[in-house]
Amino acid sequence: MISPDYDDSTAFLGDWGPFQRTVFALLCLSMIPNGFTGLSMVFMGDTPAHRCLIPAALNITDEWRNASIPLEEDEENRDSRFSKCSRHRMDVVKNYSDRGLLPWVDVNVSDIPQEGCLDGWEYDTGTYISTIVSEWDLVCSDNWRAPLTTSLFFCGVLTGSVISGQMSDRFGRKKVLFVTMGIQTVFTFIQVFSPSWLIFCLLFFIVGMGQISNYVAGFVLGMEIFSPSVRDIYATLGVCLFFSIGYMMLPLAAYFLRDWRMLLLVFTIPGIFCMLLWWFIPESPRWLLSQGRVVEAEAIVRKAAQMNGVNAPDVVFPLNQTRENAGRLRTYSLCDLVKSSNVSCITILLCLVWFSVSVGYCALSLNTSSLHGNIYLNCFLSAAVEVPALIMAWLMLRRWPRRLCLSSTLSLGGLVLLFIQLIPQHMNYVAFSLVMLGKFGLSAAFSILYPATAELYPTVLRNTALGTCSMASRVGSILAPYFIYLGSYYRSLPYILIGSVNILSGLLSLLLPESLGSPLPETISHMQTVVGLNFINKDDDEKY
Asked: Name one GO cellular component term (predicted).
C-alpha cells in the first residue's frame, strides 16, 4: 500500500544532522521518568525489620517488656531472632510483672502462651522513615499485599500495552506519547496523597498504564524517524540507556528521601519538564504517510531539511501514489496479528520471548532488597550493570544477526542463574556476582528485543505489535514478584525457574526471521517468513 522506499525518499536528509540529533536527545530525555517509576517499589514496597508493638502505656517492668517478644529460629542464617508476627500474651505478662516475678529467673518465658500483634507493629527506621508496608502494616497475615501492589502496577502496564498500541496506530505516536506521559505524571502526584492501600493500588494501576504507553510510543516514534544506521544506537544507547539512567537515579533519590511520599513527589518533577517537549518533538512522517496525510509528512521532512541545511526535492513523496494508497486505507487492529500463519507464528514466538525476558529482568531488579549487602548500593549496581550490557547490545546489533544476538544474550542470562544453586550459602558475594551477570545478559536481551521486534512488523501494525508483545512481557512482570516469593520456600528456586525459561526462549528465538540490513516493512505483505515455515501460503499475506 505505501511504498517501501521511505528511507530512500528521505535519504537527502542525511543520517545524523541537527534534526536527528535534536529528536534523538529529546526522545531519550523523555524516557528517564520511566526508569524510576517502573522500579520504585524496590524502596516504596520494601519491608523494614519489625516486631509486635508493646504499648508504651502498658505498665510492666523493663525486664518483662524486653522478654515480651518470643524468639524463633531463623533457618536461613541458622540463629535466633525476635518473632515478627507474635508476642507473649500481654495479660499473662502483666500479671507476672505486677507480682514482681522475673523472666527466666522465676518464670520460664517460653511456656507463656502467644498471641498476634493486636496493637500493631513497630518498625526499624534505620533504613527507611516509612514505606507503604510500614504505613499500612502490610506484614504477617497481610504480607501478600506487598507483592500484589507490584503486580497491580504491572497489570496497569499490561492494560496500557493493549490500549496504547492501537491508539498510537490510529491517532499517532506523538499524541499518545504526551497524553500518557501526562497521565503518568499527574497520577504519580495524586498517589502522594493516598489515604489507603486500596487507593494507592488503584492510582498505581493507572500510573502503570501511562508508563508503558509513553515508553513504547516514544520508542516507535524514534524508530520510524531515524535512518537504519541510527536505529540500533537509538534502541540501545538511546531509550534503554536513558531508562537505565532513570533507574540509577532511583537509589540515589531513595537514599536521601527515606519517606515514600516525598520520594514519589520528587518523581513527578522530571515528568513536568518532559511535557514541555511537545513543541519540539514532531509526529512520525512514516505514520502520517500510512494514514494518507502526505502534506503533513512533507512539511515535517522539509523542516528537517531546513534544520540540516540541505535542499529538499520539489516532491518528497509521490502524491499520485500516496493518494491512490489513501483511497485504499484500512484500519488495523489486534486481529491482524493472527490473520495469517506467518504473522501469527512471529507474534507467538515473540510473545514467549518477551514473557521470559520480562520475568527475569523484573524479578532480578525487584529482588535487590533481598540480596546480601546494602540495598541502595545493590540497586545502583543492578542499574549500573545495564550500561555495559547496552553497549554490548549495540555492538552486537551492528554486526551480528538479530537472532544470534537474542539467543546468545538470553542463554547467557539464563545459564549463569542456574549456577547460583551450586554456590554455598556463605559465599554471598559469588552468588551476588552471578545475579548481576544474569541481569547483564537479560538487560542486553531486553534492549535487543525492542528493535528486533519493531523491524519485523510493518508500519501499519508496528505499534500494535509492540504493544501486544509488551502485553505478554507484562504478564511476566505481574508474575515476577511471586517468582521472588518462591525464594522463601527454597532460596535458589526463583533462579532455577528464571534461568530455565530464558534458555528455552533463547532457543526459540532462532526460529524468528532475520531482519539485519532489511528496510522496515510498510505492509504485511512485506514481512519476512518464520524459519521453517516454507509451507505458508503467501497469498494470505498479500491480502493485507
From this structure: membrane
DSSP characters over 204-267: HHHHHHHHHHHHHHHHHHHHHHS-HHHHHHIIIIIHHHHHHHHHHHHHHHHHH--BHHHHHHHH
Q: Which residue has the cell 499520485?
A: 320
Residue 255: how many CB atoms within 10 A of its CB?
Answer: 15
Homologous superfamily of 332-533 in CATH?
Answer: MFS general substrate transporter like domains (1.20.1250.20)
Q: Which pTM was predicted?
A: 0.80
User: What's the CA angle centered on 63, arms 61 and 67, to 5 degrees?
Assistant: 115
Q: 21: number of CA atoms within 13 Å, CB side?
A: 6
Question: Using CA atoms, how far apart are residues 174 and 224, in angstroms rounded to an integer?
Answer: 12
C-alpha cell at 407: 539467543
Three cell numbers, residue 19: 534534526
- The H or E element spanning position 498 is helix 493-508
Whether the CB-CB separation of 29 and 242 falls below 8 Å is answered with yes
What are the tens digits of pLDDT across the range 136-169?
999 988 888 888 898 899 888 888 877 877 788 7
Task: Measure the CA–CA gap between 52 and 85, rounded to whole angstroms.
Answer: 6
β-strand pairing of 121-123 with 50-52? antiparallel
- Paired residues of 152 in beta bridges: none
**Among 372, 364, 377, 367, residue whose Cα is nearest residue 76:** 372
Please tell us whether the domain made up of 1-49+124-329 is placed in CATH 1.20.1250.20.
yes
- pLDDT tier for residue 2 given thresholds of 50, 70 and 90: very low
Look at the block and give the residue holding cell 512522517: 285
pLDDT tens-digit series, residues 297-309: 888 888 888 888 8
Burial of 107 (0-12, 13-18, 19+ CB in 10 A): middle
Domain boundaries, the chain: 1-49+124-329, 50-123, 332-533
